[in-house]
Amino acid sequence: MPDFTLTVEPRSSAAQRAEILTSPGFGARFSDHMSLIDWTADTGWTNHRVVPYAPFTLDPASAVLHYAQEAFEGLKAYAHADGSVWRFRAEVNAERFQRSCRRLGLPELSTDDFLASVDRLVEVDRDWVPTGAEQSLYLRPFMFARSPFLAVKPSTSVTYAVIASPSGAYFGGTGVQPVDIWFTRDFSRAAPGGTGFAKCGGNYAASMIAQQEAEANGCSQVGFVDAVEHRYVEELGGMNLFAVTTDGRVLTPALTDSILEGVTRGAILRLATESRLTVEERRITLDELYAGIDDGTIGEVFACGTAAIVTPVGSLRDRDGVHIVGDGTPGRVTLSLRTTLTDLQYGLRADTHGWMHRII
Protein backbone atom coordinates (compact mmCIF):
# COMPACT_ATOMS: atom_id res chain seq x y z
CA MET A 1 0.00 0.00 0.00
CA PRO A 2 1.26 3.56 -0.69
CA ASP A 3 2.51 5.74 2.16
CA PHE A 4 0.39 8.68 3.27
CA THR A 5 1.85 11.56 5.26
CA LEU A 6 -0.39 12.41 8.21
CA THR A 7 -1.12 15.89 9.56
CA VAL A 8 -3.38 15.25 12.53
CA GLU A 9 -5.10 18.38 13.87
CA PRO A 10 -8.63 17.70 15.22
CA ARG A 11 -10.93 20.68 14.77
CA SER A 12 -13.68 19.32 17.02
CA SER A 13 -13.61 18.68 20.75
CA ALA A 14 -14.66 15.33 22.19
CA ALA A 15 -17.84 16.98 23.51
CA GLN A 16 -18.71 18.46 20.10
CA ARG A 17 -18.13 15.14 18.40
CA ALA A 18 -20.25 13.27 20.95
CA GLU A 19 -23.13 15.69 20.39
CA ILE A 20 -22.97 15.19 16.63
CA LEU A 21 -22.82 11.41 16.93
CA THR A 22 -25.94 11.38 19.11
CA SER A 23 -28.02 12.20 16.02
CA PRO A 24 -25.78 12.45 12.95
CA GLY A 25 -28.44 12.62 10.23
CA PHE A 26 -27.09 11.82 6.78
CA GLY A 27 -24.21 13.58 5.03
CA ALA A 28 -24.61 16.83 6.95
CA ARG A 29 -21.60 16.82 9.31
CA PHE A 30 -18.02 15.91 8.53
CA SER A 31 -15.05 14.46 10.36
CA ASP A 32 -11.84 16.30 11.21
CA HIS A 33 -9.64 15.21 8.30
CA MET A 34 -9.59 14.29 4.62
CA SER A 35 -7.34 12.28 2.31
CA LEU A 36 -5.81 14.01 -0.71
CA ILE A 37 -3.72 12.94 -3.73
CA ASP A 38 -2.60 15.19 -6.60
CA TRP A 39 -2.25 14.31 -10.27
CA THR A 40 -0.79 16.11 -13.26
CA ALA A 41 -0.14 14.81 -16.73
CA ASP A 42 3.59 15.37 -16.17
CA THR A 43 4.08 13.83 -12.71
CA GLY A 44 1.25 11.31 -12.33
CA TRP A 45 -0.10 10.63 -8.83
CA THR A 46 1.89 12.36 -6.06
CA ASN A 47 1.63 13.86 -2.59
CA HIS A 48 -0.48 11.21 -0.81
CA ARG A 49 -1.61 12.76 2.47
CA VAL A 50 -4.23 13.01 5.21
CA VAL A 51 -4.75 16.61 6.28
CA PRO A 52 -7.27 18.64 8.33
CA TYR A 53 -10.66 19.03 6.65
CA ALA A 54 -10.74 22.45 4.98
CA PRO A 55 -12.14 24.27 1.93
CA PHE A 56 -10.45 23.95 -1.45
CA THR A 57 -9.02 26.95 -3.25
CA LEU A 58 -9.98 26.85 -6.92
CA ASP A 59 -9.24 29.09 -9.87
CA PRO A 60 -12.54 30.46 -11.24
CA ALA A 61 -11.60 28.90 -14.59
CA SER A 62 -11.14 25.40 -13.13
CA ALA A 63 -12.50 22.87 -15.61
CA VAL A 64 -14.80 21.17 -13.10
CA LEU A 65 -16.78 24.39 -12.63
CA HIS A 66 -17.50 24.72 -16.35
CA TYR A 67 -17.58 21.22 -17.79
CA ALA A 68 -18.40 19.01 -14.77
CA GLN A 69 -15.37 16.77 -15.29
CA GLU A 70 -15.55 14.84 -12.03
CA ALA A 71 -16.47 11.46 -10.57
CA PHE A 72 -17.20 10.14 -7.10
CA GLU A 73 -17.94 7.07 -4.99
CA GLY A 74 -19.82 6.21 -1.80
CA LEU A 75 -19.06 3.52 0.76
CA LYS A 76 -19.24 3.00 4.52
CA ALA A 77 -17.13 2.01 7.51
CA TYR A 78 -18.96 -0.01 10.17
CA ALA A 79 -18.21 -0.29 13.89
CA HIS A 80 -18.49 -3.83 15.29
CA ALA A 81 -19.30 -4.72 18.87
CA ASP A 82 -15.67 -5.58 19.69
CA GLY A 83 -14.50 -2.06 18.79
CA SER A 84 -13.12 -2.98 15.37
CA VAL A 85 -14.03 -1.02 12.21
CA TRP A 86 -14.65 -2.64 8.83
CA ARG A 87 -15.38 -1.62 5.24
CA PHE A 88 -17.71 -3.41 2.81
CA ARG A 89 -16.75 -4.41 -0.76
CA ALA A 90 -14.51 -1.37 -1.21
CA GLU A 91 -12.56 -3.13 -3.98
CA VAL A 92 -15.74 -3.05 -6.06
CA ASN A 93 -16.06 0.69 -5.42
CA ALA A 94 -12.45 1.15 -6.54
CA GLU A 95 -13.12 -0.69 -9.81
CA ARG A 96 -16.30 1.27 -10.48
CA PHE A 97 -14.45 4.51 -9.76
CA GLN A 98 -11.89 3.56 -12.40
CA ARG A 99 -14.66 2.93 -14.94
CA SER A 100 -16.27 6.27 -14.12
CA CYS A 101 -12.99 8.16 -14.44
CA ARG A 102 -12.23 6.43 -17.75
CA ARG A 103 -15.60 7.54 -19.13
CA LEU A 104 -15.12 11.12 -17.89
CA GLY A 105 -11.62 11.45 -19.34
CA LEU A 106 -10.05 11.56 -15.88
CA PRO A 107 -6.92 9.67 -14.80
CA GLU A 108 -7.58 6.29 -13.22
CA LEU A 109 -6.62 5.87 -9.57
CA SER A 110 -5.12 2.52 -8.65
CA THR A 111 -7.07 0.21 -6.38
CA ASP A 112 -4.22 0.34 -3.85
CA ASP A 113 -4.36 4.14 -3.73
CA PHE A 114 -8.15 4.10 -3.41
CA LEU A 115 -8.19 1.60 -0.54
CA ALA A 116 -5.29 3.22 1.28
CA SER A 117 -6.90 6.67 1.06
CA VAL A 118 -10.03 5.28 2.71
CA ASP A 119 -8.22 3.25 5.36
CA ARG A 120 -5.81 6.00 6.43
CA LEU A 121 -8.67 8.48 6.84
CA VAL A 122 -10.73 6.04 8.93
CA GLU A 123 -7.70 5.29 11.10
CA VAL A 124 -7.09 8.99 11.77
CA ASP A 125 -10.79 9.76 12.38
CA ARG A 126 -11.62 6.53 14.22
CA ASP A 127 -13.54 8.44 16.90
CA TRP A 128 -15.98 9.67 14.26
CA VAL A 129 -17.30 6.18 13.50
CA PRO A 130 -20.73 6.08 15.19
CA THR A 131 -21.86 3.03 17.14
CA GLY A 132 -25.64 3.46 17.17
CA ALA A 133 -28.07 1.07 15.52
CA GLU A 134 -27.54 1.07 11.74
CA GLN A 135 -25.20 4.05 11.96
CA SER A 136 -21.94 4.18 10.02
CA LEU A 137 -19.19 6.45 8.77
CA TYR A 138 -20.13 7.36 5.21
CA LEU A 139 -17.06 7.84 3.00
CA ARG A 140 -17.06 9.97 -0.13
CA PRO A 141 -14.06 9.55 -2.46
CA PHE A 142 -14.14 11.98 -5.39
CA MET A 143 -11.96 13.40 -8.14
CA PHE A 144 -12.29 16.70 -9.98
CA ALA A 145 -10.58 18.58 -12.80
CA ARG A 146 -8.83 21.78 -11.78
CA SER A 147 -6.89 22.97 -14.85
CA PRO A 148 -7.69 26.68 -15.32
CA PHE A 149 -8.81 26.91 -18.95
CA LEU A 150 -12.05 27.34 -20.86
CA ALA A 151 -11.14 25.14 -23.80
CA VAL A 152 -13.29 22.01 -24.01
CA LYS A 153 -10.64 19.35 -23.39
CA PRO A 154 -9.62 16.98 -20.58
CA SER A 155 -7.90 18.57 -17.61
CA THR A 156 -4.18 18.03 -17.11
CA SER A 157 -4.45 18.60 -13.36
CA VAL A 158 -6.83 16.91 -10.91
CA THR A 159 -7.38 16.51 -7.21
CA TYR A 160 -8.54 13.28 -5.59
CA ALA A 161 -10.02 13.45 -2.10
CA VAL A 162 -11.90 11.42 0.50
CA ILE A 163 -14.12 13.01 3.13
CA ALA A 164 -16.09 11.27 5.87
CA SER A 165 -19.50 11.89 7.39
CA PRO A 166 -21.04 10.10 10.41
CA SER A 167 -24.47 9.02 9.25
CA GLY A 168 -27.72 7.48 10.32
CA ALA A 169 -30.77 6.56 8.24
CA TYR A 170 -30.79 8.14 4.78
CA PHE A 171 -34.50 8.92 4.85
CA GLY A 172 -34.52 9.80 8.57
CA GLY A 173 -36.93 8.46 11.13
CA THR A 174 -36.61 5.21 13.03
CA GLY A 175 -37.18 1.63 11.95
CA VAL A 176 -37.73 0.42 8.40
CA GLN A 177 -40.28 2.73 6.82
CA PRO A 178 -41.59 2.31 3.25
CA VAL A 179 -41.01 5.17 0.83
CA ASP A 180 -43.15 6.32 -2.09
CA ILE A 181 -41.64 6.56 -5.58
CA TRP A 182 -42.71 9.02 -8.28
CA PHE A 183 -42.05 7.88 -11.85
CA THR A 184 -41.45 10.88 -14.06
CA ARG A 185 -42.79 10.89 -17.60
CA ASP A 186 -41.09 14.13 -18.61
CA PHE A 187 -37.44 13.81 -17.66
CA SER A 188 -34.64 11.32 -18.39
CA ARG A 189 -31.66 10.62 -16.18
CA ALA A 190 -29.28 9.27 -18.84
CA ALA A 191 -29.22 8.16 -22.47
CA PRO A 192 -27.50 5.31 -24.35
CA GLY A 193 -23.87 6.14 -25.04
CA GLY A 194 -23.84 8.68 -22.24
CA THR A 195 -22.55 8.58 -18.66
CA GLY A 196 -25.43 6.73 -16.97
CA PHE A 197 -23.22 3.79 -15.94
CA ALA A 198 -20.65 6.14 -14.39
CA LYS A 199 -20.98 7.70 -10.96
CA CYS A 200 -20.62 11.37 -11.77
CA GLY A 201 -22.30 14.57 -10.70
CA GLY A 202 -23.88 15.28 -14.08
CA ASN A 203 -26.17 12.26 -13.77
CA TYR A 204 -27.42 13.49 -10.43
CA ALA A 205 -27.76 17.08 -11.63
CA ALA A 206 -30.00 15.78 -14.42
CA SER A 207 -32.24 14.14 -11.81
CA MET A 208 -32.74 17.17 -9.56
CA ILE A 209 -35.70 18.74 -11.34
CA ALA A 210 -37.41 15.34 -11.45
CA GLN A 211 -36.68 14.90 -7.73
CA GLN A 212 -38.40 18.24 -7.13
CA GLU A 213 -41.37 16.94 -9.09
CA ALA A 214 -41.43 13.81 -6.92
CA GLU A 215 -41.33 15.78 -3.69
CA ALA A 216 -44.08 18.09 -4.93
CA ASN A 217 -46.20 14.96 -5.31
CA GLY A 218 -45.44 13.66 -1.82
CA CYS A 219 -42.76 11.13 -2.79
CA SER A 220 -39.28 10.59 -1.35
CA GLN A 221 -37.58 9.45 -4.56
CA VAL A 222 -37.99 9.73 -8.31
CA GLY A 223 -37.93 6.80 -10.72
CA PHE A 224 -36.76 6.93 -14.34
CA VAL A 225 -37.61 4.99 -17.48
CA ASP A 226 -35.34 4.65 -20.50
CA ALA A 227 -34.65 7.72 -22.63
CA VAL A 228 -35.41 6.06 -25.99
CA GLU A 229 -38.79 4.31 -25.74
CA HIS A 230 -39.79 5.75 -22.35
CA ARG A 231 -41.13 2.32 -21.36
CA TYR A 232 -38.44 0.40 -19.51
CA VAL A 233 -37.68 0.88 -15.81
CA GLU A 234 -34.08 1.90 -15.21
CA GLU A 235 -33.28 3.20 -11.73
CA LEU A 236 -34.20 5.77 -9.12
CA GLY A 237 -32.48 9.09 -8.52
CA GLY A 238 -29.94 7.42 -6.27
CA MET A 239 -30.80 3.71 -5.96
CA ASN A 240 -31.44 0.52 -7.91
CA LEU A 241 -34.96 -0.96 -7.95
CA PHE A 242 -36.18 -4.52 -7.28
CA ALA A 243 -39.57 -6.25 -7.35
CA VAL A 244 -40.52 -9.53 -5.66
CA THR A 245 -43.27 -11.73 -7.09
CA THR A 246 -45.57 -13.87 -5.00
CA ASP A 247 -44.09 -17.03 -6.58
CA GLY A 248 -40.59 -16.23 -5.29
CA ARG A 249 -38.95 -14.38 -8.18
CA VAL A 250 -36.77 -11.32 -7.64
CA LEU A 251 -36.85 -8.96 -10.62
CA THR A 252 -34.50 -6.08 -11.39
CA PRO A 253 -33.66 -4.17 -14.57
CA ALA A 254 -30.75 -5.65 -16.50
CA LEU A 255 -27.72 -3.37 -16.57
CA THR A 256 -27.25 -1.10 -19.56
CA ASP A 257 -24.87 1.78 -20.19
CA SER A 258 -27.50 4.11 -18.72
CA ILE A 259 -27.85 2.29 -15.36
CA LEU A 260 -25.34 2.51 -12.52
CA GLU A 261 -24.13 -0.90 -11.35
CA GLY A 262 -24.77 -0.59 -7.63
CA VAL A 263 -22.40 -2.22 -5.15
CA THR A 264 -25.34 -3.04 -2.88
CA ARG A 265 -27.29 -4.28 -5.91
CA GLY A 266 -24.62 -6.90 -6.59
CA ALA A 267 -24.68 -8.08 -3.00
CA ILE A 268 -28.49 -8.36 -3.00
CA LEU A 269 -28.45 -10.47 -6.16
CA ARG A 270 -25.98 -12.86 -4.53
CA LEU A 271 -27.92 -13.05 -1.26
CA ALA A 272 -31.23 -13.58 -3.09
CA THR A 273 -29.77 -16.49 -5.06
CA GLU A 274 -28.38 -18.05 -1.89
CA SER A 275 -31.86 -17.72 -0.35
CA ARG A 276 -33.15 -19.92 -3.19
CA LEU A 277 -35.06 -17.11 -4.81
CA THR A 278 -35.18 -17.03 -8.60
CA VAL A 279 -33.35 -13.92 -9.80
CA GLU A 280 -34.33 -12.33 -13.10
CA GLU A 281 -32.22 -9.50 -14.50
CA ARG A 282 -34.08 -8.32 -17.59
CA ARG A 283 -35.85 -5.42 -19.19
CA ILE A 284 -38.99 -4.55 -17.23
CA THR A 285 -41.59 -2.14 -18.54
CA LEU A 286 -43.23 0.28 -16.15
CA ASP A 287 -46.60 -1.02 -17.33
CA GLU A 288 -45.57 -4.58 -16.36
CA LEU A 289 -44.54 -3.36 -12.94
CA TYR A 290 -47.78 -1.47 -12.41
CA ALA A 291 -49.90 -4.42 -13.61
CA GLY A 292 -48.11 -6.86 -11.31
CA ILE A 293 -48.62 -4.59 -8.31
CA ASP A 294 -52.28 -4.02 -9.15
CA ASP A 295 -53.15 -7.70 -9.69
CA GLY A 296 -51.10 -8.88 -6.71
CA THR A 297 -48.53 -10.96 -8.58
CA ILE A 298 -45.87 -8.50 -7.43
CA GLY A 299 -46.08 -8.40 -3.65
CA GLU A 300 -42.99 -6.38 -2.77
CA VAL A 301 -40.89 -3.60 -4.24
CA PHE A 302 -37.68 -2.30 -2.71
CA ALA A 303 -34.80 -0.02 -3.54
CA CYS A 304 -31.17 -0.44 -2.55
CA GLY A 305 -28.00 1.59 -2.40
CA THR A 306 -25.04 2.28 -0.12
CA ALA A 307 -26.71 5.21 1.57
CA ALA A 308 -30.22 3.81 2.02
CA ILE A 309 -29.21 0.10 2.32
CA VAL A 310 -32.42 -1.81 1.45
CA THR A 311 -35.52 0.36 1.60
CA PRO A 312 -39.07 -1.00 1.09
CA VAL A 313 -41.32 0.83 -1.36
CA GLY A 314 -44.89 1.45 -0.27
CA SER A 315 -46.25 2.78 -3.55
CA LEU A 316 -45.36 3.76 -7.09
CA ARG A 317 -47.00 6.89 -8.43
CA ASP A 318 -47.14 8.99 -11.56
CA ARG A 319 -49.43 11.61 -13.04
CA ASP A 320 -51.98 8.89 -13.94
CA GLY A 321 -52.43 7.34 -10.51
CA VAL A 322 -51.14 5.45 -7.47
CA HIS A 323 -50.16 1.79 -7.23
CA ILE A 324 -50.02 0.49 -3.64
CA VAL A 325 -47.52 -2.34 -3.15
CA GLY A 326 -49.10 -5.21 -1.16
CA ASP A 327 -50.60 -3.80 2.01
CA GLY A 328 -48.16 -0.88 2.05
CA THR A 329 -45.91 -2.40 4.72
CA PRO A 330 -42.39 -3.90 4.33
CA GLY A 331 -42.49 -7.38 2.82
CA ARG A 332 -40.96 -10.59 4.14
CA VAL A 333 -38.33 -11.00 1.40
CA THR A 334 -37.33 -7.35 1.59
CA LEU A 335 -36.83 -7.50 5.35
CA SER A 336 -35.01 -10.82 5.17
CA LEU A 337 -32.52 -9.59 2.57
CA ARG A 338 -32.06 -6.34 4.46
CA THR A 339 -31.40 -8.13 7.76
CA THR A 340 -28.97 -10.58 6.16
CA LEU A 341 -27.00 -7.73 4.58
CA THR A 342 -26.87 -5.46 7.62
CA ASP A 343 -26.03 -8.34 9.99
CA LEU A 344 -23.07 -9.11 7.76
CA GLN A 345 -21.95 -5.48 7.62
CA TYR A 346 -22.13 -5.05 11.40
CA GLY A 347 -20.44 -8.34 12.23
CA LEU A 348 -23.55 -10.12 13.49
CA ARG A 349 -23.32 -12.79 10.79
CA ALA A 350 -20.32 -14.68 9.43
CA ASP A 351 -18.90 -13.16 6.26
CA THR A 352 -18.73 -16.18 3.97
CA HIS A 353 -18.20 -14.01 0.86
CA GLY A 354 -15.05 -12.13 1.83
CA TRP A 355 -16.90 -8.84 1.45
CA MET A 356 -15.70 -7.25 4.71
CA HIS A 357 -12.20 -5.93 5.41
CA ARG A 358 -10.97 -4.90 8.83
CA ILE A 359 -9.48 -1.39 8.91
CA ILE A 360 -8.95 -1.10 12.67
From TrEMBL:
Keywords: Amino-acid biosynthesis, Aminotransferase, Branched-chain amino acid biosynthesis, Pyridoxal phosphate, Transferase. The modification N6-(pyridoxal phosphate)lysine is found at residue 199. It catalyses: L-valine + 2-oxoglutarate = 3-methyl-2-oxobutanoate + L-glutamate; L-isoleucine + 2-oxoglutarate = (S)-3-methyl-2-oxopentanoate + L-glutamate; L-leucine + 2-oxoglutarate = 4-methyl-2-oxopentanoate + L-glutamate. PROSITE patterns: AA_TRANSFER_CLASS_4. Pathway: Amino-acid biosynthesis; L-leucine biosynthesis; L-leucine from 3-methyl-2-oxobutanoate: step 4/4; Amino-acid biosynthesis; L-isoleucine biosynthesis; L-isoleucine from 2-oxobutanoate: step 4/4; Amino-acid biosynthesis; L-valine biosynthesis; L-valine from pyruvate: step 4/4. One of its GO terms (biological process) is isoleucine biosynthetic process. GO terms for molecular function: branched-chain-amino-acid transaminase activity. The keyword rRNA-binding does not apply. Its cofactor is pyridoxal 5'-phosphate. The keyword Ligase does not apply. PANTHER family: BRANCHED-CHAIN-AMINO-ACID AMINOTRANSFERASE, SUBGROUP IIII AMINOTRANSFERASE. Belongs to the class-IV pyridoxal-phosphate-dependent aminotransferase family. This is Branched-chain-amino-acid aminotransferase. It comes from Tessaracoccus defluvii. The lineage of its organism: Bacteria, Bacillati, Actinomycetota, Actinomycetes, Propionibacteriales.
